[in-house]
Every structure is written in C-alpha cells, then in structure tokens.
Amino acid sequence: MPITQVEKIWMDGELVPWQDAQVHVLSHAVHYGSGVFEGIRAYETARGAAVWHLDEHLKRLFRSAKLYHTDIPYSREAITQATKDVIRANELNACYIRPLVLRGYGEMGVNPLQAPVNVVIAVWPWGAYLGEDALEEGVRIKISSWRRNSQNSLPAAAKATGQYINSVLAKVESLKAGYDEAIMLNEAGFVTDGSGENVFVVRDGVLTTPPVSAGCLDGITRGSTITLARDLGYEVREENLVRTDLYNADECFFTGTAAELTPIREVDDRVVGEGHRGPVTKELQGAFFAATKGENEKYVHWLTYVND
Ligand code: PPE
Fold it and tell me: pLDDT for 208-233, tens place per residue?
C-alpha cells in the first residue's frame, strides 16, 4: 500500500522533515533485520486524535528491544510524548503510527552490540489494510505452505523487523495464488496467525483464537477483542485450532492494528459460514469501532488523547 507522505518524522529526539529521516545503506538493520517496531493507530474522537492502546504497544516495543539486547535511549514516557508530538506536528486526526528502533550505521558483521541505536516514529494516514471493501465483505485467504517461524528460532514474543521475512514469504505466496492474505501453521500443524493479523473463529456462539504459545504474536487487538467479546457475554477460548476448524467455522475474522477487525469469508476455497460478514463479527466490529472513537466510557482508558 502506498505511503501518504506528511510533513515530519520524529527521529532520534527531533522532528525532522519527512525526506530527511534517512539511514545509511550500511546500517546494521538493513543487512541483518536488527530492528524492532510497533504498529499503532490513532483514531478521531470528539476530543481530537486519540492513540489506541499506546501504553500496551510501547510496553511490547520495550519487550521486543530487551529480547534483542537493545537499550532504547529514551524512556517510555519520552516515547509517549514524542508520539503525541509527531501526530500534532502533522495535524492528523487519525493515522497509523510506526515506531521503529533500529541498529544503525558504524559496524559491520552480525554482532549488533556496538552499532548505534536509532529511534524513529513515523505517522501517516492509512486506510483499511486489506482493501476498502474488506471490512464489510470479508477476505479470501489461503493456508500458507510456509510454516510460522519456530519459537526456538525466532520468538513470536518479539516484533522484530527481520522476523517479518517469514510473513513476506506467506503474503506473496497467497497474493500470487489469487488470495488476499495468508495464515500460517506451526510445525505441529496448529494455526498461528496471518502475515500481519491474529485470527478468531466463531462456532455455536463461542469464540476461539490460538494461544500465544502456538507461535502467534500476542496481538493487542486480539486482547481488546477478547475483552470486548467477554463483556458482550460471549465465551472466548484460547485453544489450538487446525485448518479444518477454519473451514467449519460459522464465522472467522482477523484482528490487528492495521487490519482492525476484518471478516474472513473463504479459506482455501471453502466458504466460511454464509460467505459474508457474520452477526458476531458485525457486533464485535461495532463494539470495537465505538471504543476506538471514545464512544464507550468503559473503554476510554484504552485511549491516549493527543491534546491532553
Ligand atoms: N500477527 C502478526 C504477525 C502481526 O504482524 C500483527 C500486527 C498482529 C498479529 C496483530 O497484532 P496487533 O496489531 O498488536 O493487534 N501487524 C502490524 C504490522 C502490519 C504491517 O503490514 O506492517 C499491524 O497491524 O500494525
């Protein structure tokens, strides 16, 4: 998806013009994937732009960095302030937010420990991740022939740039085969997640999503969806799923910061349920978007208002 350019990017403590937020081609992260990042959204509310689950995302960023022995040279409070600053500087009401901590220029060779750490927070307006119609019509997906990174090779607990080359393989395979998105299984054959989304199935009114131990990212939208669903009275289980559980579901949907809550209408050419957005998915989407807009008092604490 093309990036919509805005004025400023926050880089290493300063707001710099978009074009000036550069790294050298010999930066460590460019060669070895030694970066950690987040994907966050800010939504338009009656009180201006508000960042959805900023604390959770930044906590995960710091956990990812720790896993790769990277000390982020700013506190979480400073990154919180910088995120607000960069949204305000670009006068955005709603946007996608991409914090990135990368091993920069100065050292070559696999060892990252002497390479400098650069910190970037970019923001831009970003529409529906899987296409404008996807939120209503749903997407067609393929179970990838590529397995999800094994937890003993690349831990799902870290959102690291290099780990995404696994998702790239799966995503491209699915697109070339004519689907919208891929889901990866782990080596044992259990469902993990999409190239950039967690997955849920609904059957007989019960929601099930794979446990984090299956090897999926501990998605923040996954967590909010579990809470929203339970608050609406649904039973939610975190249990292993096999691919046929997706085929035989009444409803199936993705969750993710970029994908938000996107229905899945077909899996491996099998129509899921009625073949369009089901009632539970629709109800959860409604609850999700109301919460992101600050329309439900119960979840206002999930928002960080940019102008506060
Ligand atoms: N699984 C994967 C592999 C993943 O990348 C994401 C987020 C999720 C699950 C959902 O996690 P969360 O956003 O915390 O609910 N993917 C991010 C990057 C997408 C991209 O193309 O870049 C995102 O949604 O921002």
Answer: 999 999 999 999 999 999 999 999 99
Query: Average model confidence (pLDDT) for the chain?
Result: 97
- Of 159, 176, 282, 293, the active-site residue reads 159
For residue 112, how far is its CA from the centre of ligand 1 (angstroms)? 25
Please tell me the total number of residues recorded for the chain in this structure.
308
CB 148 within 8 A of CB 186: yes
Q: What is the pTM of this model?
A: 0.97
Beta strands in 197-250, from DSSP E residues, in sequence order: 198-203, 206-209, 235-238
- Looking at 1.10.10.10, 3.90.550.10, 3.90.226.10, 3.20.10.10, the CATH number of the domain 134-292 comes to 3.20.10.10
Average pLDDT over residues 107-128: 97
Residues with CB under 6 A from ligand 1: 39, 167, 193, 196-198, 216-217, 219-222, 255-259
